[in-house]
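Key idea: predict the complex, not the pieces.
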Amino acid sequence: MKVSLFITCLSDALFPPVGEAMVRLLARYGVTLEFPAVQTCCGQPAFNSGYWNEARETASTILAAFEDCDFVISPSGSCTSMIHHYPKLFENDPVMLGKAIKLQQKSYEFTQFLVQVLGVTDVGAKFPHKVTYHPSCHGSRLLGVKEEPLLLMEQVKGMELVPLPFANDCCGFGGTFAVKMSDISGAMVTEKTDHVLETEAEVLVGLDMACLMNIAGNLRYRNKPVRVMHLAELLYEGVKGA
Amino acid sequence: MSGAAPAGGNTVKERADLALNNDFLRKAVRFTTERLRTGKEKAAEDHGNWDEWRERGRQIRLHTIAHLDYYLNLFANNARANGVHVHFAETAAEAVRISLDIAKHVEARSVVKSKSMVTEELHLNTALESIGVEAIETDLGEYIIQLAGETPSHIIIPAIHKNRYQIAELLSVDAGETLAPDTQILAGFVRRKLREKFLEADIGMTGCNFAIAETGSMVLFENEGNARMVTTVPKTQITLMGMERIIPSFADLEVMATLLPRSATGQKLTVYMSGISGPRRSADADGPEEMHIIIVDNGRSLQLGDPEFQELLNCIRCGACLNACPVYRHIGGHAYGGTYSGPIGAVLTPALKKNVAEWDDIANASSLCGACYEACPVKIPLHEMLVYLRRRKLEAGRGDKLEALGMKGFAKVMRSSKRFKAVLKLGQLGQKLVVRDGGISLKVGPLKGWNTYRVAPSLAGQSFREKWPTMEQEIRNGLKEMDPALKSRMEAIVRDRENGGGGKGGHGHHG
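Result:
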């Protein structure tokens, strides 16, 4: 049984502890992740901006990296949902299309894999903090990852999960949107962090580092000491401390 | 009046900045969209089988649009048999000409209108005024917008960007006396004023929510009763409808009557739903003596046969995507610069024009969060269409040259993991000049927009791929055996997938 890690370029370059937490957490279930080093980026920045040729070039590294494994898991609902666009992206290339469909069928976002494949909801973590959760748009709306993170969080001992007002509203990241339409994006992220601060949570947790980087960046800009974590990091820290 | 240019600014960005600096507008839009959105969510939940009905609604719309020629003919034939004059207008100019000809023919001096986005699209009020015909909007929100000399900033709540104090000011000028900013008082004034207008009007002009092919009837949904007045008092009725407003039968209307009000305002039913099948018959107590229906194309048929955009014609104009949209929430409708605003407007405006030159950067004003798609009662994938628009703009050679270079560079790095690794290494070294406490606050180049609202993170000292060899070694050394039950569970999933089951995970809306 070969399970491969799709780290995503963002976590690879900026947030390696997220990947490490996933790797070490899954090792506890006897799952040895493989890391095919030919992978780079899913191509979403190019795809969403309309540069589909460039997206195809980049996506090819992902298709090549995961051709011969049984499961692909990723710490990002957004990058996983990008894989769901591959059949459209390669619709005129029968060979690549076949690979794209296969990859789509075996790709899982981290919490999907834990809950749906491993059947795990209680990882045995303890995390005595007040936490709020931001469900990222692509993961929750496009991949349908809604219940999985909640099931996992409910089982964390000592953790107080406070609902985030308007949780489902986009944080304003949107890839190149944050640069091209920076003022609209800025208004959106400021409203998001207002809501985070309303909860008085010590920790904001989520499933997508792009969104979390956006929210954390604004929190830091505003000098607000809320700790921002990927759920994998929270669970792994909770397991170590338990 | 309805032809007035959108408030300030030549680009979405400029217009959005105006809106972002307008606290009245932002508060008013936020207040009402929140109310409507919450109402819609509650109505969908109370309904119980919302997603099944959405799917049913989608299928009805898909079917109708796939056979639009057939249903349009059926509708036109049945309406004509009912005594309606049916006209087809290929362009906006033609629709305006037909309307003006009718107005001249009946020697009209005034027209009362119930809410119609299609007449906004045609700038019909301005055209009527140009031949000396007074056009009066009778929907309260439209009336306010007309007084202000503005265009609607929301498909169903035209004056959503105004608060009641601003509205009281406008109506006070109209009344010639100071009216208190009280909804009852303000609505009461407009009601009295419009009553006279209804009685003197020569023509009643309406839009059309649904046109029923099997009977040739047109159906109007409204809450104020003004459309009832418009369609019963004046001697002549002109209905303007987009060519895609058709549904096959009254049985299909049941589905639409369930989806539309719930999606629009959270109402279980609209207050008035009028089905009108023709001019006044001898036994009728009221109704127009002459009735015209003008079926408007104006770019709609260009979507037919286009696999990426045909579903746009499924739209039932409920405005739910506007209320759900986090961008609309901050910038309001005028920033979109067209008749239709919000996510549907961002796609519909350029699609109807099929004019790349005028596409502006409207499709970029979205974070692609998919809230529009989730809210849509007929499941139009607007978030995907926005991406198609961006791609088509590039294909037409109208992309930003600098961005194109950047994307080429991006692909060049990312198509090889060796190059990616080398660039990471370079970045790790280079950033030492700008990183403070693990963050970058510098406001230059592409970082400027980002760092105006945030501190950018720095690259990790060691990337994941650099850490991996050590990590992998540690894990392999201490690895525990996989539970046999877990192993067989995973094997079953793989088997199921290979047998065509597709696998359980990884299946979202795109799957």
